[in-house]
Amino acid sequence: MFDPGVLVVAAEQVTGALGDNAAPDALEARRMQALSLGVHIPLVCFGIAFPAMFLFVHGLYLRTGHAHYKALAKRWSKVALILFAVGVVTGTILSFEFGLLWPDFMATFGDVFGLAFGLEGVSFFVEAIFIAIYVYGWDRLPERTHFLTGIPVVIAGFAGSFNVIAVNGWMNNPQGFDVVGGQVTDPKPWTALLNGNLWHELVHMYTAGYIVAGFIVAGVYAHAHLRGKRDAYHRTGLVVALSFAALAAPAQLVIGDWAGRQVAEHQPVKLAAMEGLGQTTKDAPFTIGGFYDAERNEVRGPKIEIPYLLSILAWHDPTATVQGLATVPEEDRPPVNIVRYAFHTMVAIGSGLALLGTVFVLTLWRRKRLPRTVWFYRALMAAGPLALVALIAGWITTEVGRQPWIVYEVMRVEDSVTGNDNLELAFTVLVLVYVGLASAVVWLLRRLSARPPETELAKR
Amino acid sequence: MAEICLGLIVLGLTAYAVLGGADFGSGFWDLTAGGDARGGRVRGMVQRSMSPVWEANHVWLIFVLVITWTAFPVAFGAIFETLAVPLFLAALGIIMRGTAFVLRGQAATMNEARFLGAGFAISSVLLPFFLGAALGGVVSGRVDVDAPAASADAWLNETSIAIGILAVLTGAYLSAVYMAGDARRAGLPDLVKAFRARALGAGAVTGAAAAGALLVLRSDARPLFDGLTSGSGLVAVIVSALAGLATFALVWTERFEPARFTAAAAVGATIVGWWVATRPDLLPGEITIDEAAAPDATLTALVVSVGLGMLILIPSLIYLYRLVLRGTLDQAYEPLDQRFRPLSSGDEDPA
Known about the structure:
The complex is a heterodimer of chains A (460) and B (351). Helices cover 71% and strands 7% of the residues of chain A. Chain A is mainly α. In chain A, helix 2 packs antiparallel against helix 3 (67-101), helix 2 packs antiparallel against helix 5 (143-172) and helix 4 runs antiparallel to helix 5 (143-172). Chain B has one domain (2-299, 334-340). Chain B is globular, with a radius of gyration of 20 Å. In chain B, strands 1-2 form a two-stranded antiparallel sheet. In chain B, helix 1 runs antiparallel to helix 3 and helix 1 packs across helix 11. Classes of the chains: A mainly alpha (460), B mainly alpha (351).
């Protein structure tokens, strides 16, 4: 039964969750960090996936000698360099913010998790060096050497995400140190680096990189397709980008299931928040819709319950017991509604993308051609932005789900935040700067794509 | 181990000052190049010289940050809390400079190039000032480790201002020396002449400013001054001065390739000078290197992994700079304002 009171409770919950849980400074600082990460992460996806895509097309060119492959690989590599440059800049901001916003976190734990960032620094370097050599090396380096200079870019992209995810995994599943009398002692940096959350988060994010970059790029060529640009150049752009995304998207369902079970094991409260599960429940159902009411510690309002599904998802066992939010005091629970809706958004979009990818793969495989309906191409144009939404929703799930902890069950966010004032001003400035940045990048990419592909082949 | 980690930081700072600093300096010459027609040639050279290397050069800064927070976490936290304002401003400058530079490579009209160029050039001048000012707060012992709190004095003091100005000038000087060499390689005698004059002028001003900064340290940061005027600190200062003079002579006689290295040595020696002059302290009068260092397990892991990383990194860097210095990656030279004239194609710059 729908109860209009739910909406009021819902509205109160959101402000309550964001406003009261933490010191006001911690909220401002979290906003700044979240904003900066939200700007950086999409660029990371391109850093992960784009080099493999342009090298693949480059490889096609080396095998066949067809000029349109070269034009496409060259164009993509230029776009990759631009996005990389912006990623360098936004990544620097993140490392500044670690110190500016969370000085106590860095001071207390820098020696535990810092190793990963040391390695990340090296991979970032290698990426910066070789992407420049590769992009500026077109028509200047011997063909084989040139192709080979692209390979370190792909490897460094992987190594970079490995190291950054290692730190995030550690924050969610901290290990490799002791706490003696409130002091952190005896850091074991390798244990911290290779923490229990590393592998599933890494594979989940790495695959997401291919989905996001693949669908966004494919969307650009789907748009071109609908406008009648169907030559070999545009067709290759569509097929290659879409193939990467279409293979990654269904795989992501399996990986996501693995990640979910890891969360059930290591962060049961986060899992309970993702599902709004108040009490510890045997044969737990999966609830869609409705709103979590913190007073009653349950999901209220119009909702659909699928019996046993949560137990199956969490433990692969329909009768398994799933831990509820009530197992920890209220101040140790994350803002449930944000986490829950972010999680559901991610799952819904992810499933849709997997379906879209499967349609493409099956059509290509059975009929040896591209889908013909315009709806497929319209869906593709929407898929890129939706993949981005799913990506951000996924990060909200894991990061807001980690609240109120910065180091899970060890250090609270409000204990690590800077004592400096004026974070509100800084936040406003940062918003303006990022809006400027985003519009500038979009402007630049449109400018680049307006040039006919033939210009890439001009001799100098 | 702690010393080795600090050595890595000094290495990173030196590389950043010598390579990244020169990129800031390019922005300085871009800013002061004059109107569209007069400055077009200099700006074209700036765009061409910086494009393939600026990202790699910038990564040194990230390298310094990560080593510092891993090896000296408490000092890192205190520095960022105390110097939050200049470091935040520097962060904004980093966004503005990088983006505006990349975008200018794609500008299609003179107005766009003018607007983006201004963003790039102005932030290139402000950014090293803020970083230098923050550094000034650190080296003059204004970071309180026990009770860190943001203060204006920590970065708006004599030492900070002196080092901030010195950072801007140093970059301009290095950049002029490097670009004189680049212009020679590109066969552009008028730009060789222009950058030679800039290198000589900036060299003289920077040398004078460095001497002036020493005087400021004498009154404002006495321990550092004493360290720099005795023992190995003095050696570093003398090396820096000699390298600066050698650069002047080399540039005067138009031998730009060796001048690149002596100019870099002059700058690097001052950073090494700070290291030896402050030892055994990390933050003067506050905390020693050993007290600030993370436990040994962390330091060992960091040194081993970064050391192994260097085995990949150093050959990669050598490969990049060899390609750059041999001109393999050189793009076609084009004065910036020419790009927008109907006769030129404008499609040759990749980014």
